[in-house]
Description:
This protein has 51 residues and is mostly helical. Helices cover 49% and strands 0% of the residues. The protein has helices at residues 11-25, 41-50.
Amino acid sequence: MxxxxxxxxxxxxxxxxxxxxxxxxxxGTDALRASVLSTNAAxxxxxxxxx
Length: 51
């Protein structure tokens, strides 16, 4: 697959990390849940990095 646009630039990870921080720090959430397709390795890595 050819990469183009935003793919591989870390934008999804940056957004996910910021969303997790906002949920806990601003909204006072005590837990989050996320899921991805087992075939989507890139999205799995994003969730792993986001915590």
